[in-house]
Inverse folding.
């Protein structure tokens, strides 16, 4: 029987324990570090500690839901680096391959993902298909046993690091927009794939434009059936919204710590002597804890082999709100020094606005909650049953 002491005995030989002074980046903000994450994943893959519910053969340990939750709890006692570069593979592509991939695809890619050997990106959004994702225009035309892809993707995070991308493409423009899509895996090194990083206001270049011009993809790299791309995409997005695979990073608070490090930092800056800032901090704290617990529950449901469902949108909204409120308060507490690039909370503050856009805007998440959780009437959709090539041209 797996116990917390068993887990600690295994991890003590692999990882360092967290202390109250441990500080880690979050969501890659201000960091391009791949080495720490790759070293952590390489050290833990043999025991299946990071993706314990995955099959043992693919870098997991066939853990039950209860064992997965126990492992996640104990891991908070250790230094788990920011896994932002690896999160798409671990939290979105991996579950999609387990749900929709062939045995050969799982054998080829899952362990490489679990070990950090190969980084993945997600080629979904396009200049005219962001919130309306089903409007993607990047085409895939069959040519015998291969497909030829052409078009443009944008806001592709991690593209410049990635070996592989999971790519949503239009295979049948005569079908309504949700039905004419197919999911592929494409090598980022393939001829015809051009990655152009986009500089963000926090000076990161973690998002890219990707131009695809005649790139050839084998039919063996198709994930799911032809025309079933939207179903695969929904699996990926449900895991993204729940934050699956994101163990790692954060504010460095160790398990059992009585005072979160972000509050300790505010105290060190003297901010808690200010009644207004102290009141705001005490307002953030319970919302922050509720956000962590609900996000953890959604992520555990996803990692248990099921889908986190539409409630994952609620977890995403709460997590974003908590991150932004903590970031802005920390930056204000630093005073004028907070405007400097090395000022307290600066990176988090200039990163925070993007959190409401990544993984689907806050507005989209609220629509999902309203329609799929609360049962409210959906938005009018005039193009639901219209061929995409007509709706794309506005012929409605």
């Amino acid at each position: 029987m797996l116990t917390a002491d068993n887990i600690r005995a295994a991890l003590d030989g692999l990882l360092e324990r967290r202390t109250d002074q441990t500080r880690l980046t979050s969501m890659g903000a201000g960091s391009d570090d791949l080495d720490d994450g790759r070293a952590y994943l390489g050290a833990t893959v043999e025991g299946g500690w990071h993706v314990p519910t995955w099959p043992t053969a693919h870098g997991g340990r066939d853990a039950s839901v209860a064992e997965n939750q126990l492992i996640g709890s104990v891991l908070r006692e250790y230094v788990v680096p920011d896994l932002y570069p690896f999160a798409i593979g671990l939290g979105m592509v991996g579950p999609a391959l387990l749900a929709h991939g062939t045995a050969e695809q799982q054998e080829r890619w899952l362990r490489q993902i679990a070990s950090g050997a190969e980084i993945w990106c997600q080629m979904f959004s396009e200049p005219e298909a962001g919130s309306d994702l089903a409007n993607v225009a990047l085409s895939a035309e069959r040519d015998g046993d291969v497909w030829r892809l052409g078009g443009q993707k944008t806001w592709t995070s991690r593209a410049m690091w990635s070996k592989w991308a999971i790519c949503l493409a239009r295979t049948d423009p005569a079908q309504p927009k949700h039905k004419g899509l197919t999911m592929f895996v494409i090598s980022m090194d393939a001829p015809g794939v051009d990655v152009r990083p986009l500089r963000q206001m926090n000076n990161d270049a973690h998002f890219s434009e990707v131009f695809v011009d005649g790139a050839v993809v084998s039919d063996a790299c198709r994930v799911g059936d032809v025309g079933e791309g939207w179903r695969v995409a929904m699996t990926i997005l449900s895991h993204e919204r729940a934050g699956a695979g994101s163990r790692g990073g954060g504010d460095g608070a160790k398990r059992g710590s009585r005072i979160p490090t972000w509050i300790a930092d505010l105290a060190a800056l003297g901010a808690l002597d200010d009644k207004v800032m102290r009141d705001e901090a005490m307002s953030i704290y319970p919302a922050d804890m509720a956000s962590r617990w609900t996000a953890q529950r959604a992520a555990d449901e996803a990692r248990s082999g099921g889908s986190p469902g539409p409630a994952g949108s609620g977890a995403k909204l709460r997590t974003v709100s908590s991150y932004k409120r903590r970031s802005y308060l920390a930056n204000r507490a630093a005073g004028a020094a907070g405007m400097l690039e090395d000022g307290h909370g600066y990176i988090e503050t200039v990163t925070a606005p993007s959190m409401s856009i990544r993984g689907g805007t806050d507005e989209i998440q609220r629509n999902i909650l309203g329609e799929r959780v609360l049962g409210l009437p959906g938005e009018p959709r005039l193009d639901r049953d219209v061929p995409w090539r007509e709706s794309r041209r506005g012929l409605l």
About this structure: The radius of gyration is 21 Å. The first strand starts at residue 120 and ends at 123. The CA atoms of residues 174 and 288 lie 47 Å apart.
